[in-house]
Amino acid sequence: MANLVISGFMASMLAVSVPQSSEKTEEVEHGKAQTAPDKQDIEASQKLLGRYHLRGVMETASGLQLSEDGSFQWYLIVGGLDILSGGSWSLQDEQVMLIFDPPKAGARYDPIGTVLMRIDGENLVPSSDFGGGTFVKAKARLDRK
């Protein structure tokens, strides 16, 4: 993977930081933290698992994989710039919250931080400050016809 300097456009796409104030806080009852997700959150999270491919952004390739263990992998290819990153994901207020790991030492891009994506059916729509487009859920091979 090439380490390249990012143009102004790419810097605006990658320098995203959404405040984490929307995170659910733990409620304490009788000295115990209540952190178990409810049944609807578990079912909604299960439906989100899988691979997504970016559509609607010219000359850009990007993909996202949400895993059952709460981790994700993400890539972005624009021109000669290739970025592979990951982190953790969760369902927050009917949106997918991606918390990116910090870049490795020597990386030529700024930390991405936290990104919220609106759920639209089976697809994920990132906020416009993340570059636009829609992450379309890939169909399982058995589902393709």
Give your account of this protein's structure:
The chain is mostly beta strands and 145 residues long. Helix content is 12%, strand content 41%. The protein is built from two helices and ten strands. The chain has helices spanning 8-14, 39-48; strands at 27-29, 32-34, 50-55, 60-66, 71-78, 81-92, 95-100, 114-120, 123-126, 134-137. The longest helix has 10 residues, at 39-48.
Task: Itemize the secondary structure elements and their pairings.
Blueprint: H1 8-14, E1 27-29, E2 32-34, H2 39-48, E3 50-55, E4 60-66, E5 71-78, E6 81-92, E7 95-100, E8 114-120, E9 123-126, E10 134-137
Antiparallel strand pairs: 1-2, 3-4, 3-10, 4-5, 5-6, 6-7, 7-8, 8-9
Largest sheet: 8 strands, antiparallel
Kindly report the oligomeric state of this protein: single chain
Query: Total helix count?
Result: 2
Radius of gyration, in angstroms, nearest whole number: 16 Å
Main attributes?
two-stranded antiparallel ribbon; 10 strands; eight-stranded antiparallel sheet; disordered N terminus; globular; 2 helices; 145 residues; mainly beta
Give a summary of the structure in a few sentences.
By secondary structure, the chain is mostly beta strands.
